[in-house]
Amino acid sequence: MRRKPARKIKASAVKNIFKFPSTKSFVEPCHRRYQMVLVESMLEKDYCFHLEANPNVVVYFPQPKTFMVNSTLLKNREYTPDFEVHFRGGRKAYVEVKKDFSSLDTVYLHKLEIAAIEMRQAGYDFLCVDEPQIRINPLLQNLRKLQRYRDRLTSNSGTLTLLQNAVPHPRTLKDLIANPLGIRLETIYKLIANGQITANLSVAKLSLDAEVRYA
User: Which value, to the nearest 10 degrees, does the dihedral of the CA atoms of residues 145, 151, 157, 159 take?
Assistant: First the structure.
């Protein structure tokens, strides 16, 4: 079961709608591998890859809540953050994603400031995330590649144990693929995507020469 957005997400002359297969947007236990969510820009979709890969993120929801903003400059102005994110340890945050916050007009920035006060009173942080924080390559390229292998329903712990016994001290992805058990590259990608094998995804495009280790 998914949580409905606070407002209807629809395409317009200035907005394109994108679908994303989220494994962290369920409000209750579910047998499906992923929940398709809608976001309002390609940049927001790219941010979802980071949320999926971040082990500290438990759950997130696009367009979570609409705030009514009032101040000396604004009256009954609606504002809906792009995401609500829940972290391990109980921390919660609303997130605004923009290509460049410095290009926003002062009224819009003021609206964000007033909304952030209400969020903090409700126990939420307010995070502003821009394009340079999201579109970091080769990290983003690697996260896009691994997303298709992310599996919230299968632990693969048995396969991992077999691989650890067969290749106890791997240095590169090539070492893992050369395992004598016939464990395929696709399965190893699943282990990487689920955090059971770690690789430095920020250094280079994921390849057979990528350095790996067991988590």
Answer: -60
Residue 156 CB: number of other CB atoms within 10 A? 17
Mean local confidence (pLDDT), 144-170: 95
pLDDT band at 137 (very low <50, low <70, confident <90, very high): very high
Tell me the CA end-to-end span of the chain in Å, nearest whole number. Answer: 31
Whole-number Cα distances in Å, 47 to 22, 136, 143, 164, 165: 12, 11, 10, 32, 36
- Is it the case that residue 13 has pLDDT exceeding 80? no
